[in-house]
Each structure stands twice: as structure tokens, then as C-alpha cells.
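Fig. S4 source data, part A: sequence.
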Amino acid sequence: MVGDPLVVLAISFAGASAVLLAAGLRGTLRGDAVNRRLERYAGREEKPEFESLEGPNLIARHVDRAVQGRGFAEALRTNLLRADLRLTVGEFLLLRTAVALGAFFFGFVVGRGLTRPILGLFVGMLFAIGGWLLPHYYVLWRARRRLHQFVNQLGDTIGLMANSLRAGYSLLQTMDLVARESAPPIADEFRRVVREVGLGVPMQEALEHLLRRVPSEDLDLLVTAIAINH
């Protein structure tokens, strides 16, 4: 079976898909991605919060342009931001395609070896569907987990902010204190607000960006209170 050209092809596709998967996940660690996005905030581009990051390859950029402005792409871009995954829509769609292809050929090999050869296609299709859906549900799961972590930290953060403001610190200094003294994800989000303001974005606009990334009712109340008092 190892010498079967179809098996060799399947293994090759699975390996290539794994490489693409690793490359895509590595994109979540690109530290300069936030800097590029914040620079666009300062430029006041339309919909700055949901601008795509520049893709690492030509195909991803073409996909980004092809889906730009479409509802599903905007929703996906929002979910990627909320999950703190620094991938463009194009990169993520390519990643899903790579995972689905890899899953198909893996399922094809497994199904072909355990059943009649024709059933390998059926098993491969089932694996491909699972491979296509898995990244989507991972993003939703990660976004929900991150939101839950943020909300759990918010009570202590409000206390820290109140003490800092009573001590005479400015609102921006207080947010910088939260960014330095708190744990992720709340530290990361407040750090983004501080950096946006440092790049010239008005405080209220930066807080609205924060609300889009973290759709919490409790945070909405905090932002409203800040807007009223500052």
C-alpha cells in the first residue's frame, strides 16, 4: 500500500497542509501586526478596527481583496480580533482550506485501508467537512474563552482604576497602570487602548474599539461611565 501513488499523493497533501497550518498559527504570534494596525488607527481610515493585517503571501492578499466588504468577511474579521488571532480573513480561509484538504487525504488513506477503496472517498469527505469546520469553531471557542477571562478580571480592574483615579492619576495613566499590573487578556486590551491614544486616536474612539473587541455589557457600562465623567 505504501507504494500506491494515491497513498503517496495523500501523504504529500497532508504534509503540505500541516506546513500551512503551522505557518498560519505562527501568524498569531506576529508582534508587529498590532503595530501596523494601530498605525492605521492613527490615520483615521474607514473601519480601522477591522482592517486586515497584511498577508504574508500573494494568494492571501488576493483572497482578502476578493472578500473585502462582504458580510461574512466582516463577521469573520471581527471574530478573529475577538479571539486575538492575528490573521487576515484571507489567511484564515487559506488555513481552513489547507486543514480540510489535509483531513480529506488523511481520511481517504484511512478509509481506503480499512474498507473498500471506493469508500475511501466517502470517509475523506467526512474528514474534510470536519477539517473545514474545526478552525471556525476554534475561533469561536477562543473568543468566548477570552471574553470570559476578561469579564472575570473586570471587577478587580475597576477597583484598581478607582484607587488610581482617587490618588490623582489621569485616566490614561490609570489605563497604563492596568496594562502593567494586570494579567492578560485585560492587560493586552488596555495596552492597546493606551497605544492607540498615544498614536493620536481620541480616548472615546479607542474605548469604542475596545468594546468591539470585547463585547461585554459590564465593559459597556464602564466605558459609558468614563465618557460621562471624562
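Fig. S4 source data, part B ends here. Residues 111 and 167 are 67 Å apart (CA to CA).
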